[in-house]
Amino acid sequence: MSTASVVAVPFATGRRRRIIWISSALVLVGLAIAGLSLGDAAIPVPDVFAALFGRGESGTRLVVVGWRLPRVVLGAAIGAMLALSGALFQVITRNPLGSPDILGFSAGAYTGALLVIVGGSVSTAALTAGAVGGGIAAAALVFVLVARRGAGGTRLIIVGIALTAMLGAVNTMIELAADDVVAHTAAIWGAGSLNGIDGRWIPLILGALALGGLAIAVMAPALALYELGEDRATSLGVRPVRLRISAMLIGVVLLAVTIAAAGPIAFVALAAPQIARRVWRSGPMPFAASAMTGAVLLLFSDLLAARLFAPTMLPTGLVTIGIGGLYLAWMLSGANRRRR
To answer: Does the keyword Transport feature in the UniProt annotation (predicted)?
Structure first.
């Protein structure tokens, strides 16, 4: 069996996927236009396009291009990065619950960034470094704890859940020990939100997405073989240990950068890859489709968070928790039905 035979698809399937791609792109564009148009000051769609092309009133251009466009761009990019991170971990753990939210990596990245905030810095570089360091430390700890008996199966999930609970307690203690202003800032940021996110994050987020996406595209054939089983992948020239470490590092960095920018936004990494897999009907993990699904999910969730109780704007993470909780209950109930 060759790599090409794993990724090749029949013509009819390819045609169906092209239709899904076009439909998904239209939904994404529709959500982006809604995000640019809706708000306390509703702006007609023609005026939105005029502002995007540098025409129209200066006030309208400020609202559309200066305030709302960075949020829409960053929302789509962060959703895509979370989905790619989740897809990587679900492949290397061979478990649909192998999400960084559940494995404790999100909690570790949050702890790292929280320590930076309590230490008095909110700069882009410091928050990113803290989140990446915390995420990698958490991932290393989880894999050390399960190293003897392998990283697959439910053992990794249980260890991840335990680490998430432990780090949650640590994070609460850090917030309680901080002064009121810092604790309030950390609590708002810790809910996971695109409220207040600004354009300074665009170069870092888009750069990380581009580099991470390129690395995943290079690794995708090997990851497709890895999903067939470690022994078979090894016989076809894949080095499983090196592949797992590379995928883990890329996944943690993608995740940590999003947490530094917007706080921990739960369940997108868990749900997007599995939704993409079902919609695209893919055998190997569909990384590009996962990224598209994550972008759509997060833009949709952010639109709900911003407009559901307007003028009050909810943290985006609250909406993703609601959607993700329903998805998780549906997935677990489906697994129980299949076991009967």
So the answer is: yes
